[in-house]
Amino acid sequence: MTRFLLRRIPQAVIVLFGVVTLAFVLTHVVPGDPARLIAGPNASVDTVASIHHQLGLDRSIGYQYWRYLVGLFHGDLGTSYALQDTPVASAILRALPISAALAVLGVLWEALLGIPVGILAAYRPGKLADRVTTLATLVGLSAPPFWVGLLLLYVLAFKFNLFPLSGYAAPYINYLILPSFTLGLGGAAWYARLTRTNMLEALRSPYVQMARAKGMPERVVLLRHCLRNVLSPLLTMLGMDLGYFLGGVVVIESVFGLPGAGKLTFDAIGTLDVPMITGAVLFAAFFIVVMNLLVDLAYALVDPRVRR
Amino acid sequence: MTAPPIAEAVPLAAPTGLRRALGSLRHDLPALISILVLVLLALAAIFAPLLASHPPLQTYQEGLAANGAPIGPGHGFPLGTDPNGRDVLARLLYGARVSLTIGILANGLATVFGVLVGLTAGYLGGWVETILMRLTDVVMSFPILLFCIALISVTGPSERNVVIVIALIYWTTLARIIRSQVLSLREREFVVAARTMGLSHWRIMRKHLFPHLVPTIIVYATLGVASSILIEASLSFLGVGVPVPTPSWGQMIEQGKEYFQIAPWLLFAPGVCLIVTVLAFNLAGDWLRDLLDPTAPERR
């Protein structure tokens, strides 16, 4: 286990370093001038130049990168261009709880909708329930989440008044149900498909034949024998999804007006707030890398074969 | 006694690729429908100028109600008008051009990147492989949409940039799959023989390895168009995709969302187009996978 850790953790650190470098290079080397955007279209060349100096954009790219890395080690992601004097890190940390709540609920929807539907489909392959769910999952995978969200808002919030239209206020859960459901729907379709495929494969294995030969009822074979083997890879994927969602889901947050990390990023785009955008990308990538690492560790703990 | 004519053996030979494909389509209704849909979509996109009754960018005074609200289907505008008084049907048809072109170009480019990286890494091995696969890990750790948004917000939204950015993030899955296939292919006798004959690495990759990868590439290129179209729609919806006057489905939904309470058709029409297109590409991809490469893993 120690050897596994010794190999896997430095790997994650290297990937993170690569992410920082690539994110910095892509947002700083690429054409586009935030100083011009801040100064406005009528600003003189001098004004733009002084803003350049203020932001440190007149220094060499290598120096800027070095400063960024040093700052990063001190937990400093720079200062937002648009929100005067607000450190990027604290702005993101403030928005993060909302994104985290959305992420956890979204993953819950994925699991609670997707896995039972997959089991149902695998129970009698080729029959009506299977065909209906197969079609439904395909539609679920093909529907753009922002459109599904708007549709749900139109029907459930506007026509039937069951949910608030947008924003985030006191009974928070009311404002989170629709967004998290929208977020989880695409994933649920994916998990239903995967559960079905893996269940069908497990149903063909010798231990299932054995269980059936012993005269186990089909329900016990499905839920006790198959599901256990199918569930563990699904759980690791759910873990990765959580990491993916934690950094903020821009589309969902902007449809439902949730002031999370995704919305923060989206607002930063309009003002070309490069430190904020870079910071948000880094935060999101950090969650992805760390969750992948945790999932791998959990896997290694459960399954000794992985520890090689 | 004459020997039986050789021609008799022909009916026993395996059917050609095309005939096999058409044969399997007969038994696969969803695939057949999806391919018909794709053909119709392509035709609609190509002949958009002939099919649309209005130009897509023209704003009409009579296209807005007295209170400035968009008007519903009928009244000279088959699918109604958008908040600027433009014909929704015309914008949908021209939007098909944009969505299909960007989806196909972006994914084509991503496929080229993926194959080049996967093939090179798998065949050459050593430090080249280490560097390329670590790079793949890094790109895979980026949150896809956030990364696209960040890049486009800095480079400025344009059709070209959307294509490049989607391609830059979407090559990783294919690169991994191609690499793992090449890893097993390169130990096979025909590759060893080619190497023994002194052929160049480039020639071995191009002439001996690449043909074995074509089925996989076709499957993933088709499935990938679906994801690329969805990403383009999301970017345009967020306002960092196709720049404004040019119609794109995602952007039409974005413009309709302020009015969805009084003009729900602004959401329905482009949304249904998006779902149908993406679904058709997904179904066609699944069909191709069953046909060409049944062992290929599922892709999200």
From TrEMBL, chain A:
Keywords: Cell membrane, Membrane, Transmembrane, Transmembrane helix, Transport. Residues 96-299 form the ABC transmembrane type-1 domain. Coiled coil: none annotated. The chain crosses the membrane at residues 12-30, 98-123, 135-160, 172-192, 234-256, 276-302. Gene3D superfamilies: MetI-like. GO terms for cellular component: plasma membrane. It comes from the Bacteria. Pfam families: BPD_transp_1, BPD_transp_1_N. It is a multi-pass membrane protein. It is found in: Cell membrane. InterPro entries: BPD_transp_1_N, MetI-like, MetI-like_sf. Belongs to the binding-protein-dependent transport system permease family. This is Peptide/nickel transport system permease protein.
UniProtKB/TrEMBL annotation, chain B:
GO terms for biological process: transmembrane transport. It holds the Pfam family OppC_N. Keywords: Cell membrane, Membrane, Transmembrane, Transmembrane helix, Transport. The chain crosses the membrane at residues 29-52, 102-126, 138-156, 162-178, 213-242, 262-284. Residues 96-285 form the ABC transmembrane type-1 domain. It is a multi-pass membrane protein. InterPro entries: BP-dependent_transpt_permease, MetI-like, MetI-like_sf, OppC_N. Coiled coil: none annotated. GO terms for cellular component: plasma membrane. CDD domains: TM_PBP2 (cd06261). Its main location: membrane. It is found in: Cell membrane. Belongs to the binding-protein-dependent transport system permease family. This is Peptide/nickel transport system permease protein. It comes from Asanoa ishikariensis.
